[in-house]
């Protein structure tokens, strides 16, 4: 049976990237991997990449300026087998695609609590 093996990346929408980077450094002792840019701030924790991105979280209630989780990237041992299991359970998804040498399965955000969910394996 296919299974999720690791959290790879978490994407978090931030209203102000500079302030978010300061907060993550001061509050959680996580230092950005490179200087913050207008497009993103990258942090790492235990091998998991945390990306702070401008904008709002998908499905956020209220105005388009809501911060929050934007996307979650999970690694699996076999995306094709997992896709079959999700199909049998009636979970909406996109077709498997190849991206950066990986097979990527995109799950309907409604099925993942209004968070963009991507599951990949290294078999691409």
Give an overview in words:
The structure is a single chain. The protein is α/β, with parallel strands linked by helices and 124 residues long. It has one domain (4-121): Roll (2,3-Dihydroxybiphenyl 1,2-Dioxygenase, domain 1), CATH 3.10.180. It has two helices and seven strands; from the N terminus they run E-H-E-E-E-H-E-E-E. It has helices at 17-28, 79-88, and strands at residues 4-14, 41-45, 48-54, 68-76, 97-99, 102-107, 116-121. It has a seven-stranded mixed beta sheet with strand order 2-3-1-4-7-6-5, covered by helices on one side.
What is the H/E string?
A: EHEEEHEEE
Number-wise, the strands total 7
- Strand adjacency order, main sheet: 2-3-1-4-7-6-5
Total helix count? 2
Largest β-sheet summary: 7 strands, mixed
**What share of the residues lie within helices?**
10-25%
Structural class: alpha/beta
Envelope shape: elongated
Total number of domains: 1
- Roughly what is the average pLDDT, rounded to an integer? 85
Strand content: 35-45%
């Amino acid at each position: 049976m296919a299974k999720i093996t690791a959290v790879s990346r978490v994407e978090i929408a931030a209203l102000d990237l500079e302030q978010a980077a300061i907060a993550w450094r001061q509050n959680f002792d996580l230092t950005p991997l490179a200087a913050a840019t207008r497009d993103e701030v990258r942090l790492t924790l235990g091998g998991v990449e945390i990306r702070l991105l401008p904008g709002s979280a998908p499905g956020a209630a209220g105005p388009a300026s809501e911060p929050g989780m934007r996307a979650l990237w999970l690694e699996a041992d076999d995306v094709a087998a997992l896709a079959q299991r999700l199909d049998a359970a009636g979970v909406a998804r996109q077709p498997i695609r190849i991206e950066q040498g990986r097979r990527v399965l995109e799950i309907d955000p409604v099925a993942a609590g209004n968070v963009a969910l991507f599951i990949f394996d290294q078999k691409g």
